[in-house]
Amino acid sequence: MNASISILRPGSNNPATHPELTDTLRASVAAKASAALTVLRAALEEFGSAGELTFANSCGAEDMVLTDLILSPALPIEIFSLDTGRLPAETYSLMGKVEQRYDAKLKVFFPDATAVETLVRSHGINAFYDSVELRKACCGVRKMEPLRRALAGKKAWVTGLRAAQSVTRSALPLREMDLANGLAKLNPLSDWSETEVWAYIRINEVPYNALHDQFYPSIGCAPCTRAVALGEDVRAGRWWWEDPASKECGLHVKAS
Q1: Which residues make beta-bridge pairs with 249?
Q2: Choosing from 59, 139, 224, 249, which is the catalytic residue?
Q3: With 0-12 CB in 10 A as exposed, 13-18 as middle and 19+ as buried, what is 117?
Q4: Strand pairing report for 156-158 and 175-178
Q5: How far apart are the first and last CA of the chain?
């Protein structure tokens, strides 16, 4: 590990978030950004531009790329976020920066308060550490139910998923059918590398979560997210106490 970089001494010199912007990398990012825009514009033509198409923005690095691709050219695609009630302070700060940068308000969905109270009273405030089942129950209340409301009445939704993110996403198509929610699902960044994501952010000066510079490549709820060591898998900091094969909250698990 570089002596000037460590999890205990994070900073703006995190090599993962500051790739060298070579001519080759710039060309690759420009080509993939153009392809992603083509996907988004084609989706508007197919599904409609009056709210039928929505983008689920978790405020991660990939989602900030898509936010910029949508809002910079003012594409008529709705953007929503899920506030689980346990997000890091840095995520809320980023939401505010997005609204200021693009002069746009995010549509935020919250979990049902009664359902959260019931879950916590029955199992405890941090029961998600106790078993995969309880962790998924927490995700169900805080993420899955609000997502269902966010997607109600939509024809298609856009995500920032990438095939390289984890073993659970290795065979990620550009487009698929979300059987659980009954609508099409588009993954315009499915073939992007992490380096290409960060190159786009740097080239276009896109706002991003400050935790990324502190070695948080993947950011979810605060209790379920931690920094990773250099060279670790990008999803190693999410639900680190579980087997990699179970590391999904349910938002992107295919219905059987």
Answers
A1: none
A2: 249
A3: exposed
A4: unpaired
A5: 42
φ, ψ for residue 186 (rounded to 5)?
-110, 135
Q: 174: helix, coil or strand?
A: coil
In order along its 256 residues, the chain shows pLDDT tens digits of 333 333 444 455 788 899 999 999 999 999 999 999 999 999 999 999 999 999 999 999 999 999 999 999 999 999 999 999 999 999 999 999 999 999 998 899 999 999 999 999 999 999 999 999 999 999 999 999 999 999 999 999 999 999 987 554 457 999 999 998 999 999 999 999 999 999 999 999 999 999 999 999 989 999 999 999 877 887 889 898 887 765 554 454 454 4
- What DSSP element (H or E) covers 157? strand 156-158
Question: Of 246, 244, 214, 206, which is closest to residue 230 (Cα–Cα)?
Answer: 214
Find out whether 189 and 36 touch, Cβ atoms under 8 Å. Answer: yes
If 0-12 CB within 10 Å is exposed, 13-18 middle and 19+ buried, where does residue 177 land? middle
> Model-level pTM?
0.86
User: In the sheet where 78-82 sits, what is the strand order?
Assistant: 107-109, 78-82, 53-56, 156-158, 183-186, 175-178
Task: Return the closest-CA partner of residue 83 out of 104, 56, 111.
Answer: 111
Active site residue 249: yes
